[in-house]
């Protein structure tokens, strides 16, 4: 079985992240979305709320699981018996940064990273921007997958 994790401390409920998961499912048997817990990071949505939202979004897709983790991504990947790590890329700069991390992960664990670029029209939408807008009480519904509510 080909299983991948899609990790991060981000909020993977934005349109861009949702499209990456959908594309990854075209060639993976299962995706585990990992919500990294980082207490020092400013989040306006609690881990529990993010888990609830993402699980609801994928409730009709049995090949997607959602889990929280607080250790290294490669340790999380090993616990999930994942063969791959999926990373969403918006820009070339993102790719250069993630490529270095992927090389370290491969050397430490043997787990390969798959890079999936966000669609061109979504490249300016990052979860950091969405979180910032939420923090200031702005409407972010345009950046959420259809049917998703905060």
Globally, the shape reads globular
The biggest beta sheet is recorded as: 5 strands, parallel
Runs in which pLDDT lies below 50 for 5 or more consecutive residues are none
Output mean pLDDT. Answer: 86
**What is the percent of helical residues?**
25-40%
Strand content: 15-25%
CATH evolutionary superfamily: HUPs
* Helix and strand run: EHEHEHEHEH
Architecture (CATH level 2) name? 3-Layer(aba) Sandwich
General description of the model:
By secondary structure, the chain is α/β, with parallel strands linked by helices. The chain has a single domain, classed as HUPs (Rossmann fold, 3-Layer(aba) Sandwich), CATH 3.40.50.620. 37% of the residues lie in helices and 21% in strands. It has 5 helices and 5 strands, in the order βαβαβαβαβα. The protein has helices spanning 15-24, 47-57, 73-79, 92-109, 127-135; strands at residues 3-8, 30-36, 64-69, 84-89, 112-117. Strands 3-2-1-4-5 form a 5-stranded parallel β-sheet, with helices on both faces. β1, α1 and β2 form a beta-alpha-beta unit. The protein is globular, with a radius of gyration of 15 Å. The N and C termini lie far apart (34 Å). The mean pLDDT is 86.
Task: Give a brief outline of the structure.
The chain is of the alpha/beta class.
Question: How are the secondary structure elements laid out?
Answer:
Blueprint: E1 3-8, H1 15-24, E2 30-36, H2 47-57, E3 64-69, H3 73-79, E4 84-89, H4 92-109, E5 112-117, H5 127-135
Parallel strand pairs: 1-2, 1-4, 2-3, 4-5
Features:
Rossmann fold, alpha/beta, 5 strands, five-stranded parallel sheet
């Amino acid at each position: 079985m080909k299983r991948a994790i899609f990790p991060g401390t981000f909020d993977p409920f934005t349109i861009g992240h949702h499209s990456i998961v959908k594309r990854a499912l075209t060639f993976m048997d299962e995706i585990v979305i990992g919500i990294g817990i980082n207490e020092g990071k400013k989040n306006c949505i609690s881990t529990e709320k993010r888990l609830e939202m993402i699980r609801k979004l994928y409730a009709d897709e049995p090949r997607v699981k959602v889990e929280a983790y607080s250790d290294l991504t490669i340790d999380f990947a090993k616990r999930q018996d994942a063969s791959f790590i999926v990373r969403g890329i918006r820009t070339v700069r993102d790719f250069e940064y993630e490529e270095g991390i992927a090389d370290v992960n491969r050397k430490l664990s043997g787990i390969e990273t798959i890079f999936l670029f966000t669609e061109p029209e979504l490249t300016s939408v990052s979860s950091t921007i969405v979180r910032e807008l939420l923090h200031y009480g702005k409407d972010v519904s345009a950046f959420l997958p259809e049917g998703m509510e905060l």
